[in-house]
Fold this sequence. Notes:
16 helices; 2 domains; about 350 residues; Rossmann fold
Amino acid sequence: xxxSTSSSEAIGEVVAAPVRGIRIALVLLVVLCxxxxxxxxxxxxxxxxxxxxxxxxRLAAELAHRNGLRIALVGASIVHEDIDTTRLTERVRAATxxxxxxxxxxxxxxxxxxxxxxxxxxxxRPGNRxxxxxxxxxxxxxxxxxxxxxxxLARYFTTVDDWPEVLRTDLATTAERADFLLSSFWTSxxxxxxxxxxxxxxxxxNYKAFAREQQNLxxxxxxxxxxxxxxxxxxxxxxxxxxxxxxxxxxxxxxxxQRADWNGQPYADARRLIEASGTEYVDLRSGDVDxxxxxxxxxMNVDGRALYTGLLADALTPMLxxxxxxxxxxxxxxxxxx
Length: 338
């Protein structure tokens, strides 16, 4: 009797084990689906940056269809922190006497790999042509093997058509490739770092400023450590070649920061590659930097933004052409109806 009971209990445990496993798996699945739904439909719409990314295809199309000079600013956070697009547009328009239009396309803490896919996604693939793409940069942004934000790249700047190139050229490890593929399907995974930042920003005062300062310090340390080592420029070369294929005129612009080591970098190899391709290269760094115009190690305050927007406009004007009277009048007439 007792042996029969023991056998029955043992059989029951064997049968119950898979059932418990299935229940646990179902609970986990429900939790994951709930987190995914919350992230996709609630948290992501609350994130201003992701909302901007969604607007970029529309902004690129609108810019491409404007009359006059069309200037796209593409790059990292200095695009929107250090450049006043309204002031830039007005200054270029006044200097050239041609209607000018400017739009910003930025992704915080991004590098040349991401900018390539932004251009592909918003301009080249849909055929949105502009007169000039300005790419401001600092630090190691033009070099390979920077720590990209993979989830953002997967969700907002690439499609299935880009997968072979991303996996082959831009991601070096199996972990990065797995992260990219997971992020392509799973929003909560792709945005996990941003959701953490959003949560901490709501809970802790000044968290965003603290996080940016820490990021700048890490960024600077990595660049200093690698400054004397040869770094490849495969992604930059790809961007330059593709721009030529699409007949897109580019201008790379070095901006100053409060980092003396960054301001002293000659970028000789990157500059040679850029200029050899027939692309414009502008260096806005000059002598000692006035630290009072900066809000942090990298980004400028209102005074710095006004100053360097003017310097940028003055540097771009010769590329866009001072307005010959007849051409200026023709462009002005075509833009008068806007």
